[in-house]
Amino acid sequence: MTEPTTRNHPRNHVRDRIRAAFAEAGVTGWLHAVDIDSGAQIDVGADQPVVTASVHKLCLLVALHQHAEAGHLALTEQVESQADGRTPGPTGLSAMLDPARLSLRDAAYLMMAVSDNTAAELLLARVGLDAVNDTTERLGLTRTHAVQTFREFITTIREDAGEGGPQALADPQVLARLRALDPARTNRSTPRDMTRLLGAIWRDEACNPEHGAAVRRLLGLQVWPHRLASGFPFDEVHVAGKTGSAPTLRNEVGVIEYPDHGRYAVAVFTRAASPAAALPAADAVIGTTARIAIDALRSPDPRSAGGLRGRAGP
Q1: What is the pLDDT of residue 2?
Q2: What is the pLDDT of residue 304?
Q3: Within the chain, which residues score under 50 in pLDDT?
Q4: Helix 57-69 with 117-127: angle, nearest 10 deg
Q5: Which helix (H) or strand (E) holds 213?
Q6: Are 168 and 162 in contact (CB under 8 A)?
Q7: What whole-number distance in Å separates Cα of residue 114 and Cα of residue 71?
Q8: Which among 144, 145, 150 has a CA at the least distance from the CA of 110?
Q9: Helix, strand, or coil here: 274?
Q10: Measured distance CA(295)–CA(308) in Å, rounded
Q11: CB atoms within 10 A of CB 227
């Protein structure tokens, strides 16, 4: 969709507010938000190549369900997770101590709800990295590509940090050499590609309605409230999303659904100067900027958008 680029166009006012919010939070940010049904959109660097990190688990999830739809696997198929050799991570199987046996669909739940890296590796072992790329290519995500597993992504951070370990990440020179922070050398996408994927999922274009509903269910079970969901603290508004994180990087893509049936795909990718794990403002700005964008899409006059308005909503 092409919009006028004059200085006083209402969309430019919204973009300025979003850029100001990113700056106040101390991050560089890129955003794309789109009304899934009308195609109206807000673009702030939507075609910038970005590191997906765990956001790429959404692509794996869609590939898994496409394989199930085609009869290549059954989601109830059981997989084993041994106690040794698990992919590092703070949640799910990655944090467990004993062997476990579970279905592919339950591994998918852990991968999406708590971003379990070991569960993601179990699914990748069954589906394959090439199948993930085939899925994104078929869906027209021309700037989305996976070049490594999640285990490999984590391994490159450890290798590039060197003998200094996690403490070395405080050194800007160490950060500059991390392959995991370079979209050209790791799994990548753009905000626009991610909202295109979300739109396809919500319109049942990525999978048939049965599998599309299963994918949407898992996105709705994500437990993290501090990023995208923080911008929509309303019981009547449903937030479904997938986060992604790496040193200095905080991302989330998702869909916001209103009781008036309005539904909006949004993708926000950010990079901070600090590698600190706890940067509340950097987390919260994902919800803040998504809210600004979606309020504008729902408002007759984007310059006045500041609350839940436009269509009859909460």
Answers
A1: 46
A2: 46
A3: 1-7, 304-314
A4: 40
A5: helix 209-220
A6: yes
A7: 27
A8: 150
A9: coil
A10: 6
A11: 27
CB 200 within 8 A of CB 176: no
Place of tokens 């703070």: 90
* Amino acid at position 10, single letter: P
For residue 159, what pLDDT is reported? Answer: 95
Residue 146's alpha-carbon distances to 111, 124, 130, 137, 154, in angstroms, are: 17, 11, 8, 11, 14
Contacts of 230 by beta carbon, 8 Å cutoff, 6+ apart: 283, 284, 286, 287, 288
Exposed e or buried b per residue across 6-38, where buried means at least 16 C-beta atoms within 10 angstroms of its C-beta = eeeebbbbbbebbbebbeebebebbbbbbbbee
Position 215, amino acid: V
Residue 290 burial (C-beta neighbours within 10 Å; 0-12, 13-18, 19+): buried
- State the amino acid at position 100 in one-letter form: A
Question: What is the token pair recorded at 312?
Answer: 């009859």
C-alpha 298/C-alpha 210 separation (Å) is 29
Residues 80, 94: Cα–Cα separation, whole Å: 13
User: How far from each other are the two terminal CA atoms of the chain, in whole angstroms?
Assistant: 28
Paired tokens of 131: 């199948």
Q: What is the pLDDT at residue 277?
A: 87
SS3 for 206? coil
pLDDT of residue 12: 87
Nearest to 3 by CA among 308, 305, 302, 313: 302
Q: Which among 286, 185, 191, 268 is positioned nearest to 230, based on CA atoms? A: 286
Angle at 14 between CA 10 and CA 15, to 5 degrees: 115
How many angstroms separate the Cα of 200 from the Cα of each of 20, 125, 195, 206, 290?
31, 25, 9, 5, 19
**Amino acid letter, residue 244:** G
